[in-house]
Amino acid sequence: MNPPKPFPILCLLFLAIEEVFKALDPIEIINFSIISKRTKGIAKQMSFFPKYSMGLFINETLDIMFCGTGDMVSWFYAMTSDIKMDGKIEEDESDGCIIRRVFKYSKDPVEEWKQLFKHVREIFKKQTIDVLRITVDSFLGQNVSIIEYLKVNMKSVDLCYLFQTNYINNVDKHTAYLLDNIKIISELTHYLYTENYDFDGKIPKNLQHLCIYNSQWFGFERLLIHDETKEISGGIDIRKIDGKTATFFVHYTGFSMSVH
Ligand SMILES: *[C@@H]1O[C@H](CO)[C@@H](O)[C@H](O)[C@H]1NC(C)=O
Ligand SMILES: *[C@@H]1O[C@H](CO)[C@@H](O)[C@H](O)[C@H]1NC(C)=O
Ligand SMILES: *[C@@H]1O[C@H](CO)[C@@H](O)[C@H](O)[C@H]1NC(C)=O
């Protein structure tokens, strides 16, 4: 039996190619775009990509995440150093949303993820990232290089979530370095066990939501430097420079702030 005839997508007219692309998911688009210079060039011309929001998730693997507006599926392209996972596809469901994760093995996952993200950012024309979720004590040896890379390759991140796996690891310096180098626009949620009272990381200004757990180290003065404050029941109100009000709630595990 003859092998199936390949579909000559590159011979189609541009509008027809675009229709074919609309039927592809982001992982298929990436796979197509890395075949050759020509396929990359074609992928770059597609106009409908802005509908995807994009995230970077760093934990045991380094993932690039896509989420379409409207459809309840998110796709993860995960770089792993575990060869047994190569080519595996995991499917999960969370809050009615389907999560599809494709694994790719690499001897040097950090390096390959960096290259892939650069490529993807170019194809999907993204200057900013919607979500950054980092377990700061994963890839410890490459902590600085990952942050420097992010600093150069994305303008800002909208939502940022910081985690830590092992409370024994001191991540104070790492976290301060991250906060100094990455611009966070609307939300920072922080689950780290920072305990160093000298922690001198900069907390981003103008956030709509700030949530810090395990925050024994955290001096309120750090937040109060620029604003007018008064205590109200159930929280501390801060009138921000832009006229909005932020309310702080102190919990036994930490505190949170929301702007309204
Ligand atoms: C990181 O990966 C570990 C192991 O798979 C998992 O237990 C943990 O929940 C993950 N952390 C985050 C923040 O996703
Ligand atoms: C895309 O490429 C990855 C990595 O090579 C592979 O595991 C996956 O099966 C491919 N996915 C599709 C939908 O072609
Ligand atoms: C990077 O991680 C190492 C531990 O592997 C730590 O000693 C160092 O302080 C960290 N540096 C920064 C800037 O995060």
Automatic annotation (TrEMBL):
Keywords: Signal
PROSITE patterns reported in the protein's UniProt record: FBOX
Segments forming a coiled coil: none
Residues spanning the signal sequence: 1-23
Alphabetical list of InterPro entries matching this protein: F-box_dom
Domain F-box: 6-52
Annotated protein name in UniProt: F-box domain-containing protein
Species in which this protein is naturally found: Caenorhabditis remanei (Caenorhabditis vulgaris)
Phylogenetic placement of the source organism: Eukaryota, Metazoa, Ecdysozoa, Nematoda, Chromadorea
